[in-house]
Amino acid sequence: MFGARIPIVQAPMAGVQGAALCAAVCQAGGVGSLPAAMMTLDQLAGEITAVRAQTDAPFNVNFFAHRTPQEDADRTARWLARLRPYYEEAGLDPAALPKGPGRAPFDEAACRLVEELKPPIVSFHFGLPDEAMLARVRASGARIWGCATTVAEARWLDAHGVDAIIAQGAEAGGHRGMFLSDDIDAQPGLFALTPQVVDATRVPVIAAGGVADGRGVAAALALGAKAVQIGTAYLLSPQATTSPLHRAALKAARDDATRMTNLYTGRPARGALTRFMQEVGPMNADAPAFPLATGFSAPLRAAAEARGSSDFSPLWSGQAAALASETDAGILTQRLWRDAQIVMRALSEAGAPA
Amino acid sequence: MFGARIPIVQAPMAGVQGAALCAAVCQAGGVGSLPAAMMTLDQLAGEITAVRAQTDAPFNVNFFAHRTPQEDADRTARWLARLRPYYEEAGLDPAALPKGPGRAPFDEAACRLVEELKPPIVSFHFGLPDEAMLARVRASGARIWGCATTVAEARWLDAHGVDAIIAQGAEAGGHRGMFLSDDIDAQPGLFALTPQVVDATRVPVIAAGGVADGRGVAAALALGAKAVQIGTAYLLSPQATTSPLHRAALKAARDDATRMTNLYTGRPARGALTRFMQEVGPMNADAPAFPLATGFSAPLRAAAEARGSSDFSPLWSGQAAALASETDAGILTQRLWRDAQIVMRALSEAGAPA
Fold first, then answer.
1. CA of A185 to nearest chain B CA: how many angstroms apart?
2. Second label for A321, Cα 20 to 30 Å away, from A81, A112, A146, B247?
3. A256-274 pLDDT tens trace
4. Half-sphere exposure of residue A12, counting CA atoms within 13 Å on the CB side?
């Protein structure tokens, strides 16, 4: 449907992957992705060039479509007070906090890069950029994908002219794409979300969240999705730059050991439970608005990781991380589809008239 | 697998159904259920007799396996203080609260009824009764099913010798079956839960939560389940005794309009958002332990319903209620399976080698 041989999209995962993972998935017949949010535009251009050097297949460049917030001084003060014991424990001076790695929104410069480099697919998280910029992306020739976590968001994306909708179930690791609501308790699971989004919209639906093996791929297609988007299952591949601490957490994953948390960046995201999340959250209303909270958590993370601890690391992970294995991303892509085909053929026998 | 022609189990739903719904599903080829928790044992015996008068097919009797809690005077006082404005608004004297409809746990008398009436399948919610009673149920000839909301609970049930495990995803309406944890934020969605439970246990898995049409049935089988359990989709059938207010809420259902709440009974359960849940919860640590909270909420519900309001009604509903329709339960059962077969046959074409 997207010019790919295999209906599997590798989820863009900012900070843990680049061209190597994207290209491996493309070469295997799926759709690889590049996450722009934590790259400079020069870096992103280099990654796009690197992907194109390895494959002619379509790939996806993902941008965050948030608006940069105003800092709220009172909230910042409350947050600093809450985190002070951790800064002291780490030997960090909160008055001298280095600005942590932020997340770049899709802006004029990013839009120009899209116009210049013309990635075949451009996807957005946290809604869409404004109409004028969206029109420029469309005019570049890119297919535009948006992410919906509810039927209301899916209808909104459909009305704004996206070419496909990623239906992100509550099981998904990493940042929730939610943009019309901030109530994480209202977020539907993929089983309920997928068919309702399919029924409510006119464009192909890509199911995401908790899909980590061939059974999940087949199940998503049964629910009416045209493709799946898979993230966590790729985090243990050699092509991902997942840190050793993050890999260790994924290898110890349990179905019930992740939580949604806003502590790391200011927006809800799902990851393995850490000391930071247990003691301060996992959700805390004083965490500065996305992406400002990153500047406060990143130094704690760096200090902890330097002594081998993941107490303050965002260990992004979906609820099916236990199904992941250390497999080459290209081999994994082909195995996911081969296993899905086996499941689908077996189901056809169950589907024969009794 | 359970002696039924169709791998669909009608979920037991205390307070909104009895023999009529159970028998209709059995006659159509599925497995009907009777919910014991809100019936006297005499009522339950009558319902079992009524089912047997209508069908020879296997059916399921569901019991709650909780232990009756000690009342916590401080918590009760806090709860009364929190609810006082609502009692005043309703013209109720909190000192004269009638004891509301409780929920009966599986006990000696219930065990004797099972031994006497020998229902073919006995299922338990909230864990299992003690070993001695479980052995008596097993000796009665009944197949025993337990409900797991996590892999840990599934392993526990498997170790305790159940014959099948209901994997209840976070999407499910009504009471969470959880018994090894009370953290609702840790509850996995069905997409992630089902394959992990299948991999972790030796017995057949019945997938529950967010399954409301043939797509969902096919998807659950793709994930490795041997059957599905469906509740909400039956609530609009004429055989259910769902109240008009509850039916109205289901007809207006949205994917993102349910929450887990402990306000009504003391245990987390999923239902459509109400004024009570918005103002007091949806989760509140002061709500008395299950099932004691029922006595405090039931009079408010009765008073509100008497004036046509569902502000205090438990409108139990899963996240896929919008897929439900007003259909005869027998016809619905057959349609669910026929539609699932169509989906599965279509998938087999997608599953053919490319």
1. 6
2. A146
3. 999 999 999 999 999 999 9
4. 28
Asked if residue A81 lies in contact with residue A33, where contact means CB atoms within 8 angstroms, the answer is no
Q: Homologous superfamily of A8-66+103-237+326-350 in CATH?
A: Aldolase class I (3.20.20.70)
**CA distance readout (Å), A128 to A27, A179, A180, B65:** 29, 9, 11, 48
pLDDT, tens only, A5-57: 999 999 999 999 999 999 999 999 999 999 999 999 999 999 999 999 999 99
The three-state DSSP-derived secondary structure of A334-345 is HHHHHHHHHHHH
Q: What are the distances in angstroms from CA B202 to CA A72, B126, B157, B198? A: 54, 20, 10, 8
Q: Which residues of B88-109 are buried (b: 16+ CB within 10 A; e: fewer)?
A: eebebeeeebeebebbbbbeee
Cβ atoms within 10 Å of B72's Cβ, excluding its own: 14
> Would you say B348 and A221 are in contact if contact means Cβ atoms under 8 Å apart?
no
β-strand partners of B258: B272
Q: How far apart are CA B31 and CA B97, in angstroms?
A: 39
Q: What is the pLDDT of residue B352?
A: 54
- What is the spatial distance between Cα B281 and Cα B273, in angstroms, rounded to a whole number? 10
Q: What is the pLDDT of residues B200-210, one digit of tens each?
A: 999 999 999 99
Cα four-point dihedral sign B312, B317, B320, B326: negative
For this complex, say whether ipTM is above 0.95.
Answer: yes
- How far, rounded to the nearest angstrom, does the alpha carbon of residue B203 sit from its chain's CA centroid? 21
pLDDT digits (tens, 9 = 90+) for B240-284: 999 999 999 999 999 999 999 999 999 999 999 999 999 999 999
Shortest Cα distance, chain B CAs vs residue A275, angstroms: 15
pLDDT < 70 positions in chain B: 1, 99-101, 350-354
Distance to chain A for B35, nearest Cα, Å: 24
Cα dihedral B171, B172, B173, B178 sign: negative
Give yes or no for a contact between A164 and A143, defined as CB atoms under 8 angstroms apart: yes
Neighbour count for residue B238 (Cβ, 10 Å): 13
User: What is the C-alpha to C-alpha distance for residues A169 and A180, in angstroms, rounded to an integer?
Assistant: 15
Separation CA A206–CA A303 (nearest Å) = 38
DSSP assignment of A273-309: --HHHHHH-SS-TTSPTTTTHHHHHHHHHHHHHHTT-
Which two three-digit tokens encode residue A39? 């790259």
- Chain B interface mutation, best of A255, A337, A339, A341, highest count of B Cβ atoms under 10 Å: A255
Look up the pTM and report it: 0.97
CB atoms inside a 10 Å sphere around CB A85:
10
Taking an 8 Å cut-off on Cβ atoms, the answer to whether B191 and A213 are in contact is no
Question: Which amino acid, one-letter code, is at B171?
Answer: E
The DSSP secondary-structure symbol of B343 reads H
Please give the full DSSP string across B249-302, using - where no structure is assigned: HHHT--TT-EEEE-TTTSS-EEEE--HHHHHH-SS-TTSPTTTTHHHHHHHHHH
Whether the bond between B291 and the residue before it is cis, its omega within 30 degrees of 0, is yes
Rounded Cα distance between A66 and A177, Å, is 10
Chain A with chain B: Cβ pairs closer than 8 A: 199
CA dist., res. B157 & res. B163, Å (int) = 9
Q: Report yes or no: A263 and A288 within 8 Å, Cβ to Cβ.
A: no
Domain with CATH 3.20.20.70 in chain B: 1-66+103-242+322-349
DSSP state of B49: H
Report whether CATH 2.60.120.10 matches the domain B1-66+103-242+322-349: no
d(CA A91, CA A307): 12
| Region for residue B127 given its phi and psi (left: phi exceeds 0; alpha: psi -120 to 50; beta: otherwise) | left
Scanning every residue of chain A, which has its alpha carbon at the shortest distance from the alpha carbon of B198?
A215
